[in-house]
Structures are given as C-alpha cells and as structure tokens.
Amino acid sequence: MTHTLDEGSSTPLYAQLRELLKSQIEDGSFAPGERIPSEDKLNGLYGVSRITIRRALQELADDGYLVKCPGKGTYVGERIPSMRRPTKIRAKFTQNNDVQSFTEACASNSQSAGAHLVSLEEVEGLEEERDFFGFGSEGRLLRLVRIRTADRTPIMIEENYFPVGTYGFLLDADYEDTSLYDIIVSNGHGEPTLNEPCDLDLEKAPADMAPYLDVPAGEPLFCLAGRYFDTDGSPMYLGKQHIVGTRYTFRI
User: Does domain 94-251 have CATH number 3.40.1410.10?
Assistant: First the structure.
C-alpha cells in the first residue's frame, strides 16, 4: 500500500519517509533479508529527492533496520529492533555548569554528538539584543537554529544570535555534525565564556519544534538562556537551548 508524504507538515520529509519505512519493516511488510525498493522506485512512489531518500535510508541503516550492500541494493536487517524505541529517556547525561560545548559533553559520556541545521537567517535585533551587543537600530543579527543529537537521539534545539558584522563567516560554515565552538575558534575567536549566570526556565514544546525533537507538542522542555562573551570580554552571542528534560541532566 502506497502512502503519501505531507510537504506541508513541520516534520521534515526525510523523517516522514524514515518513519514510514520503519513501520513497514516492523509490521512485516518488508521481511528480514528482503530487498527494499530502489531509490528510483522510492522517488516514483513518494516524489521526494534522492537526498531525502538517502538520508532516510542512512538513518535506518545506522539504527540497524537496513543493511546496504554496494552494487546489490539495500536490505532489511536479519535482526531488526523488535519494537520502536521509547520516546523518553533514550539518552541521559550530565554536563557541568561551566561553558562546556555539547560535543564535549557527549564525548565525556561516551556518546557521539550530532548536529543538523534547521535555519540560518539574518534578522533585525530587538531591544534586548541591541542592548547586549551595543549597537543601534541598524544592527542586524544572524539567527542560527540547529538540532543537537547524542547517539542520534535528539536532545535539544539550539537557537543562537550573533552580530552579522563580526560573525558573517557563519553564513558559509558547514553545520552538519560540526561543533559550533570549533567553527568560531577556527575563525580567530576564543571559546565562548560566561561572565554571568544563565537563566533556566520551563516551557512547552511548540507544534513546529516538537517533530524535530521527536516529542509530542506540549512536551515539557528546559529553556536555558545565556549571554556569551569572547575571551577579550566582547559580546559574542545570545544563546537559547530548548532541551528535552528526560534526556538531559544538569550537574550544578
């Protein structure tokens, strides 16, 4: 039975295709050892790009549902996960309350950090941002939004604001599975520092954010907001982390 993908959904097409194929594997529509349709066939069935198809297949392979055989095709694994993984407590680790990058936090817990770009756009600075960065009404900001994962489990959405004039190099950076701190340092800046406490609040996952975190809309999230500085004391960025509380532990 052919299903359609919803291009208007807030859930990315690759994630929709991944979940659809996963459900077909789990319900026996594709048996262990069976070859799944080719990329051309999947393109004809669902009308999505090869990039979308390849990402969905790669994530299923990484999770043990598929096995890729070069020159032969992609097959259902002989020993697939018997049940869908639970949506809660899939990854839980601690992070000290100093400025430790997410990549470092994952490494200290023997987990692999991942990153996927959601959006990068130039926006107008509001009063709070203008006050922090010290510019007038002409000041513009780069709004950088990424999903951060640990062992492929979504942990948080990062929402960071940088002044365009100083951090314009971020427009050309590669954010896929990359440490933002590494990008900043490689462009001549120091590692971000905190000169004041962060604010930690609770919020509910909005409908447009929840699919990226693989949680239902309204799921409780931590919101950690901080003002970060360069090593010379100059303002670097304003950051917000929208964190799935059941997958993250703060050590304070």
Answer: yes
